[in-house]
Amino acid sequence: MFGIAPFGMICGAAMVAGGIPPLAAMLMSICVFAGASMLAASQLLAAGAPVALIIVTAFFINLRFMMYSGSIRLHLGPLPIRWRLLVAYLLADNPYALSMARFAEHPEDRNRVAYYLGVSIPVWICWQLAVATGIAIGTGLPAAWQLEFAAPLAFIALSVPLLRDRAMIAAATASACTVALAHALPLRLALILAACAGLAAGLLAERKTA
After folding, report:
1. Rounded to whole angstroms, how far apart are CA atoms 201 and 196?
2. 147, 176, 192 - which closes a domain
């Protein structure tokens, strides 16, 4: 919770600072429930980017949830469709990591749904309250403060702890160099190019290490 709350507050403040109305920002948080893509989308909306580009950007950022779904399906796949829809909506980084660790340690546990909901619902509540607080703070701050810088700072804070091996460092370096060199491209295309460059560099470094 201590890690989720500050990020949610930054996300809420950044959205309203980027020009998204407070009510729309809160509805976006409830419907999307994915901080990284929400920050990216708010920046693109503020820049007047086309809707198609915003959707593609959010799609790339949220690709990890497809991998999450594929692995957690082994444990929660037999559930009825109404429960699977709830599980899918609540899926986030923290509940996924905690649940998979629990399921690995207790493979015979029959209360998997209860455990998953027990870790995911508090995360959802904490996130929405934090975003609402950030929206309230961002709405009350002077427009001249321009909190758009909060988004890249949040991404940097999330990314640095992941730089533990050569592949991750190569991916981060390639992405950073690409986005810096291509920052003048229209429609924030530098983000897409940086993501592709980071993926390519990370895979190449991983193959060389193997």
Report:
1. 9
2. 147
What phi, psi does 114 have (nearest 5°)?
A: -60, -40
What is the band of 31 on the pLDDT scale with cuts at 50, 70, 90?
very high
Q: How far apart are CA 128 and CA 124, in angstroms?
A: 6
Total domain count for the chain? Answer: 2
Is residue 83 located within the same domain as residue 179?
no
Question: Structural domain of residue 200, as residue ranges?
Answer: 163-210
Q: Give Rg (Cα) of the chain.
A: 18
Q: According to the model, what pLDDT value does residue 151 have?
A: 56
Q: What is the pTM of this model?
A: 0.71
Instruction: Give me 79's structure tokens.
Output: 């559930």
Residue type at 48 in one-letter notation: G
- HEC string of the chain equals CCCHHHHHHHHHHHHHHCCCCHHHHHHHHHHHCCHHHHHHHHHHHHCCCCHHHHHHHHHHHCCHHHHHHHHHHHHHCCCCHHHHHHHHHHCCHHHHHHHHHHHHHCCCCCCHHHHHHHHHHHHHHHHHHHHHHHHHHHHHCCHHHCHHHHHHHHHHHHHHHHCCCHHHHHHHHHHHHHHHHCCCCHHHHHHHHHHHHHHHHHHHHHHHHC
pLDDT confidence of residue 18: 76
* d(C-alpha 59, C-alpha 46), whole Å: 18
Give dist(CA 210, CA 208) in Å, integer: 5
Round to whole Å and give the CA distance between 50 and 44. Answer: 8
